[in-house]
Write a structure and sequence with these properties.
The chain is mainly alpha-helical and about 375 residues long. The protein has two domains: about 290 residues, Alpha/alpha barrel (Glycosyltransferase), CATH 1.50.10; about 60 residues. Helices cover about 60% and strands about 0% of the residues. Strands 1-2 form a two-stranded antiparallel ribbon. Strand 1 and strand 2 form a beta hairpin. Helix 5 runs antiparallel to helix 6, helix 7 packs parallel to helix 9 and helix 13 crosses helix 15. The chain is elongated. It starts with a helix and ends in a 14-residue tail after the last helix. Bound molecules: zinc ion (ZN). The site of zinc ion (ZN) has 5 residues, from loops. Zinc ion (ZN) binds next to loops.
Length: about 375
């Protein structure tokens, strides 16, 4: 009997596999873990996933106790202020509020219940990098804020709209979070490219001004900057990207790290050069599954550009690799990890999930994927 149950669960999963591709599945995870303000980040308030709230320190607990007393004060203003301040203290104080909701002054009990009813407001806003990666995953699947697709109850269009809306309200600060900044710029550029929405275009232009390649940039930041400049040029948000791509190439060239060599190779492709495929073979002399998600994505892009799709399937993103990735993606219906490649925290899971889906996009050759971006004609 139990064997039959396991078998039918397996068949059910297979059935789901037929109706959703691996990237399409990721939209389910992303939709369920989007924060109430439209961003993605450290934690979710919408499902049963493991909480990552740290225990509040004694100072926070003392402040919470003070504010809980103020909830019962006569002045409406101070009651409202106290409630807002409690939300800002973060989800760690939820147990304390739950206790206060049980006894004492009626006004205070009601206010505590209100706080708990809107518990999503305890979450901190998400971060630029997670939000941008989640949006890029969906954009490269061909979705925009106008998409009408619904994946297992997750409406993709409204999800994208909330995410993009959050992004355009952020004040760009390139030096504080260079990786988040470049990813957000790329998401805005691609958002504009897919939708031709004027507001996205205008905001993307502002953000593009903050991503001049610099010697202090990490290799990953430089690699993403290359993609971003080329995407901006493709979408006519910049008249020319040759100078910037050339600078990135100069900064990455002859550095020994694999991602630096990959970034240099792609810069050459997008500058219209024809780099030596032997270089690509040397830098990708590794098993794809041994790479971290960023190297896997960029490595897959290089492989596709250097050797074409046939070779990609034959010698890089082959059956074994795809099967290993599909098996490790969560597919159990209504479970927290459905559609995700899980890691220790929500933030890491969003990053790994989005990047792995993007690598699949290169394999699937959907027209929106950067694998389809041609080098500009000279
Ligand atoms: Zn969850």
């Amino acid at each position: 009997m139990s064997v039959l149950l396991i078998l039918s669960a397996f068949l059910l999963q297979d059935d789901e596999r037929r109706s959703y591709s691996a990237p399409a599945f990721t939209a389910i995870y992303l939709g369920r873990h989007q924060l109430h303000d439209g961003s993605w980040g450290e934690r979710s308030g919408t499902c049963d996933c493991r909480r990552e709230d740290p225990e509040p320190g004694p100072e926070v607990q003392r402040r919470a106790s003070e504010l809980l007393i103020q909830l019962g004060e006569d002045s409406l203003d101070s009651r409202v202020r106290a409630q807002d301040s409690l939300w800002a203290l973060g989800p760690g104080i939820i147990p304390q509020i739950r206790e206060s909701a049980g006894d004492g002054d009626l006004e205070r009990r009601l206010r505590c219940r209100q706080l708990l009813a809107q518990r999503h407001r305890f979450s901190k806003p998400g971060d630029l990098a997670s939000t941008a990666l989640a949006l890029l995953d969906c954009l490269w699947q061909g979705h925009t804020h106008r998409s009408r697709d619904v994946c297992r109850g997750v409406a993709i269009g409204p999800m994208m709209e909330k995410g993009l809306r959050w992004l355009i309200q952020v004040d760009p600060q390139p030096t504080r979070d260079p990786l988040g900044h470049v990813l957000a710029t790329l998401a805005l550029v691609e958002g504009y490219g897919k939708s031709k929405d004027d507001i996205l275009g205008a905001v993307a232009k502002t953000w593009l001004r903050g991503i001049a390649p610099s010697t202090t940039d990490s290799i990953e930041v430089l690699a993403w900057k290359g993609v971003t400049f080329y995407a901006a040029r493709r979408n006519r948000l910049m008249p020319d990207a040759r100078d910037d791509l050339g600078r990135i190439l100069a900064l990455l060239d002859r550095r020994p790290e694999r991602l630096a060599r990959i970034g240099a190779y792609l810069s050459r492709v997008w500058l219209g050069e024809i780099p030596d495929p032997g270089d690509a073979r040397a830098m990708l002399c590794v098993h794809p599954l041994d790479l971290d998600p960023v190297d896997l994505f960029f490595g897959t892009l290089v492989f596709r550009h250097a050797f074409g799709r046939e070779e990609l399937i034959e010698n890089w993103f082959g059956f074994e690799v795809r099967r290993a990735l599909l098996v490790s993606q969560g597919t159990r219906q209504k479970s927290c990890d459905e559609g995700a490649w899980m890691k220790g925290t929500t933030r890491e899971t969003v990053r790994r999930t989005a990047l792995t889906a993007m690598s699949f996009q290169v394999y699937y050759l959907y027209v929106d994927s950067p694998s389809e971006w041609e080098a500009p004609k000279k």
